[in-house]
Amino acid sequence: MAEGVDGEERRKSPLHGIENSIPVAVKELVAGGVAGGFAKTAVAPLERVKILFQTRRAEFRTAGLFGSFQKIAKTEGLMGFYRGNGASVARIVPYAALHYMAYEEYRRWIILAFPNIGRGPVLDLVSGSIAGGTAVIFTYPLDLVRTKLAFQVVETPKLRAQGLSQPGIIYRGIFDCISKIFKQHGVRGLYRGVGPSLYGIFPYSGLKFYFYEEMKSHVPEKHKKDIIVKLACGSVAGLIGQTMTYPLDVIRRQMQVEALSASEHGLTKGTYESFVSIVQNQGWRQLFSGLSINYLKVVPSVAIGFTVYDVMKSWLKVPSREEVAAQVVREETSGQLSSLHSG
After folding, report:
1. Burial profile 14-31: b = 16 or more Cβ within 10 angstroms, e = fewer
2. Pfam families annotated for this entry (predicted)?
3. What are 187-216's pLDDT values in tens digits?
4. What is the distance between the alpha carbons of residues 121 and 123, in angstroms, rounded to a whole number?
5. Neighbours of 33 (CB within 10 A)
6. Other C-beta atoms lying within 10 Å of the C-beta of residue 57
């Protein structure tokens, strides 16, 4: 009885009409954006140290994890752990929004085009892979900016207030960085390193969705909405996917900061040339530099991302994938029947 009263009150609420008027795709965009921003900020300090390791910043080559944290805290203060995070969040919010929404849309389109296709994890693998590529293409310049800002190491705000020179500062912020890159290298400069990003995101994104949905499918129905279960499934999915594609992430980072290194005035290298150069000059172990930190980062990041996304979809009253897919098929069938009758 109480449930009926609650349902009646919810129907009378002005928010109920607003919820129903918002398209499902928009709700998925919002849910994905919130999930991405929340997860990225939670692991920003680890992301900063990982980038410094990957790009072989001289001061951090032998510092180790705790030594790197101490060095950043001493030279840059608390905000040093979030250097580049503004660009990171500015990128991850639209990236995650596009990623999750495109995944859901591609999944529905595939089901609509091939009604008899299985609804298993393979569908999630294909949908997730294409969605990842779509999101990268639209948001890559912000990822490049994030890396360049995180690569810079500056002194404390006190020295900056005294007007002392800061040779380590090349870019003063997101817009300054984009402007300078565009003036020097044009649009191609804003997509420096996009090759390995796309090579890596297709398998990583697909595998991440694949393993997440595969593991959830084995969870008893009564536990599928448990936060701990979602966190566990997301953690394992991120761990497996990231391990298999990590070397491409290292290549991408080094290509992104190449213009800030000693090779600034030399010829830029492509993905394969960068791979060969890293192996020959830095050793194959460099392809996995920062991987241990990445484990510390990616496990909570993916787990939090998936969990917040699912919670946001529930809060925004997003119907289940099966319900949306069935509705799309019904609308398509109804449209075809209307055309036949009118003909």
Report:
1. eeeeeeeeeebeebbbbb
2. Mito_carr (PF00153)
3. 888 888 788 778 778 888 888 888 888 888
4. 5
5. 23
6. 19
Structure tokens, 288: 């996995």
From the list 204, 175, 167, 191, the residue with the least C-alpha distance to 256 is: 191
Interval 155-179: pLDDT, tens: 555 545 545 444 455 777 788 888 8
Q: Is the pTM of this model over 0.70?
A: no
- The rounded Cα 308 to chain-centroid distance in angstroms is 14
What values do phi and psi take at 272, rounded to 5? Answer: -65, -45
Residue 272 tokens read as 């394969």
- H helical segments located in 64-173: 64-76, 85-113, 121-151, 157-161
- Name residue 32's amino acid: G
Please choose, from the candidates 132, 251, 144, 149, the residue with its C-alpha nearest in 3D space to the C-alpha of residue 191. 144
CA-closest candidate to residue 227, choices 311, 318, 104, 124: 311
Query: What is the set of domains in the chain, with CATH numbers?
Result: 24-318 (1.50.40.10)
Q: Count CA within 13 A, CB hemisphere, residue 28.
A: 16
